[in-house]
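Input/output pair, single chain:
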Amino acid sequence: MNKYRILLIGIVLDAIGCISYVIPGIGEFADVVWAPIAGWLMTKLYKGKPGKIAALVAFVEEAVPGLDIIPTFTLMWLYTYVFNKE
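Output:
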């Protein structure tokens, strides 16, 4: 998959994670549903040990109230394609 397509998907998924701030009262329930989905999607976008670690981080970030603002998918893309020099 093209790395820029993965970036676009990640930005969209980060935006979905922030939707809970827009809908008062439903936000916390949405986070409970979205957290495991975000973790699973992270493992599909990024394979191996880094993907599993990122999935755990994404799950925790979505499950803990107030942390939704962190763009986990975008940060993982930056780690994978910009900062990781393997």
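The CA atoms of residues 24 and 30 lie 11 Å apart. The first helix runs from residue 3 to 18.
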